[in-house]
Structure formats: structure tokens, C-alpha cells
Design goal:
- This protein is an alpha/beta fold and 328 residues long.
- Helix content is 45%, strand content 17%.
- Helix 9 runs antiparallel to helix 10, helix 10 packs across helix 14 and helix 13 crosses helix 14.
- It is globular and about 60 Å long.
- It starts with 7 loop residues before the first strand and ends with a helix.
- 42% of the residues are buried.
Length: 328
């Protein structure tokens, strides 16, 4: 079957994932002829670019672009500019999607008229273990509901669904609202997802199929990076200001409380000298924890109140490092 146009555009930024990119590409090829695949090689120095070219020579619906290394935000924006499908799905090159993603979507397992469709994210660990991302979104709480109700539900998630994967988005929504990835920063997914959820008019949940997010030493969080911390802090500050202008500000502040809690281990990983330039800014945002709806954030709020920002963040960093070591 050949399509006269592509209904879905899968956009994959590729950087030094020669071990996994073939699996990613093949999982998308299985979605059907009405899906185009845009591979943006972000200056890979291994054989990833050659693997992309190998598949592109065999399939007309694969487009490969080789660009200089500029980061995933630039690569995704570039891919979006090249996309022609009515729907956009971003996949990282070391991840993959389940075989029936598009087949069952086309059979009506989710409402394609929705601006945004969430689907499952499954963490896949290096030992083969699978574990749900635990965002806990339920179709009956989101589908057909007013957006204030949808945002309220999302604000109570045990994990804010900021991942770029696990989302099917109407291309028109991204274009009309100029939703782009911030370029050159770590944590661009937080800003992008907030732009997205503040722009949509409808949403659905598609629980039948999944996005597999590979957890490996090469994809672990960059704790100890001053740049990571600075970028994350900048996003928090920017969106705290934006929340003042929006009628949905209490829900945005709930999202930001989660991201502030995620941020604290970054701060806790730094030396005393490295923390000094940021301490006032971080303390100024401490109020965000009061908007947290989950038990985890309430516990972190208690720890910060008892120990102070510096000691609580160090404790959180030690906890996260031990957790990540156990799951590596």
C-alpha cells in the first residue's frame, strides 16, 4: 500500500546511538506506509549516520539529514520544519515504539481529533526489566473534558508528563502556536511540554500501545553538571513568571513544584562554592513546593522545612544516586 500523503511524521534526532538506532528505525517502519520517518543526524561520530543512510536507501519514506552537532532541541526543530504529516511523534534514537501504535490508533483506540494524545511510556533497563513511567494518566479523566479539568488531572500526576516521547500531537497545533524547543539548553523537554499543554484545546489517553524509553548508563541524568542546573533553574524562573499571566496559573505552579523537586538533587550535587551564585534564586522559588499535590513533594517540602535547602538537596542527591545505581 502506498499513500499519496503521509498522515504521521516520526521525528528522530540521532547522535552516537549505533547500538540502538536500527531497532528504533525498524519499530517505526512497522507502523505502515502512511508514516514518514525523518532522521536528523546531529553530527554523530560513530556509525549512526551510516546506519540511517542504509535504511533510507531502501525506503522512500525515510528522509535523512546530516547536520553539525547542535543538540537535540535544534535537531527536533529542524525535523519539524521538514515534516509533512498531520500528526507529529518524536522518538529518541535509542528508544522505540510498539508495533501496533498506529494500527490501533487508526482503528479508533484514541480520538485523533484531539490536539494531544498521550500514550504509555515504559522504562526499559539494561537488564531487560520493564517498568511503567508512572505518570498515571487515565482516559476517563481526560478524554472529552474541559481543558481546565485536564490540566487539573495532570497537575496531580505522580510524575509530570514532561517527556517528549509518549505523545501524538497535531502538527497544526505546533505550527499555529509556534511551539519550538529551546535550543542549546538541558531540560528543553520541560519548557516544550509546558508550551504544549498551555496551547491545546483537547486531549486523550491511548493506553493500548507504548513508547519504550531505554535506561542505560549513557542516558542517565547528568547530575553534577552546572550547566544542567543553570538551564533547569532558568526554565523554572521563566515559567514562574509566565504563570502570573495565565488563568491556569495554579496548575502550572503545580507542575513547577514537581520540576523544582526534580531540580533539587542537581543543586545538592554541587560543591559549596558552586552553589553560592544560585542560592538566593533557589530559595526564592522554594514557595513552589507549597503547590505540590503528591506525597513525594509533600515529603520533600517537609525535609526542606526541617533541614533547609542546602542539606535537604544534598540528601536528595545521595538518594537519587543510589536509586540510579540500583537501576543501572
Amino acid at each position: 500500500m502506498n499513500c499519496s500523503f503521509y498522515e504521521y511524521s516520526f521525528i528522530v534526532p540521532v547522535y552516537n546511538t549505533e547500538k540502538y538506532v536500527g531497532k528504533c528505525i525498524e519499530s517505526i517502519l512497522k507502523q505502515g506506509e502512511c508514516c514518514e520517518l525523518i532522521l536528523v543526524d546531529d553530527g554523530s561520530t560513530d556509525s549512526s549516520g551510516n546506519i540511517c543512510d542504509f535504511y533510507a536507501r531502501q525506503y522512500e519514506r525515510i528522509k535523512v539529514f546530516h547536520n553539525k552537532n547542535s543538540g537535540p532541541g535544534v535537531a527536533r526543530n529542524f525535523g519539524l520544519d521538514k515534516a509533512s504529516g498531520n500528526y507529529i511523534i518524536f522518538v529518541d534514537s535509542d528508544d522505540y515504539v510498539s508495533n501496533g501504535l498506529i494500527k490501533y490508533l487508526d482503528r479508533g483506540y484514541a480520538d485523533r481529533s484531539a490536539d494531544l494524545i498521550f500514550f504509555n511510556i515504559i522504562k526499559k533497563f539494561s537488564d531487560g526489566r520493564l517498568e511503567p513511567m508512572a505518570e498515571g494518566l487515565k482516559k476517563d479523566e481526560i478524554y472529552g473534558k474541559p481543558m481546565n479539568e485536564v490540566l487539573k488531572v495532570i497537575s496531580k500526576c505522580s510524575k509530570f508528563p514532561a517527556s517528549i516521547g509518549g505523545k501524538i500531537i497535531k502538527r497544526d497545533v505546533l505550527i499555529k502556536n509556534n511551539i519550538r524547543f529551546k535550543e542549546g539548553i538541558v531540560g528543553e523537554d520541560i519548557d516544550w511540554t509546558l508550551q504544549l499543554v498551555c496551547s491545546i484545546n483537547s486531549a486523550d489517553v491511548y493506553p493500548e500501545e507504548s513508547y519504550y524509553y531505554r535506561i542505560s548508563p549513557g542516558t542517565r541524568r547528568s547530575y553534577g553538571s552546572v550547566k544542567s542546573m543553570c538551564d533547569h533553574l532558568g526554565v523554572l524562573e521563566e515559567w514562574t513568571e509566565k504563570a502570573k499571566e495565565k488563568t491556569t496559573n495554579k496548575y502550572i505552579l503545580s507542575y513547577l513544584s514537581y520540576q523544582y523537586a526534580v531540580f533539587l538533587p542537581f543543586y545538592g550535587s554541587l560543591s559549596t562554592e558552586e552553589r553560592v551564585p544560585y542560592t538566593k534564586r533557589i530559595k526564592k522559588l522554594r514557595f513552589l513546593l507549597s503547590y505540590g499535590k503528591t506525597k513525594k513533594i509533600k515529603l520533600i517540602r517537609f525535609a526542606v522545612g526541617l533541614l533547609g535547602i542546602n542539606e535537604a538537596s544534598k540528601l536528595l542527591h545521595r538518594y537519587v544516586m543510589k536509586r540510579d545505581e540500583a537501576n543501572a
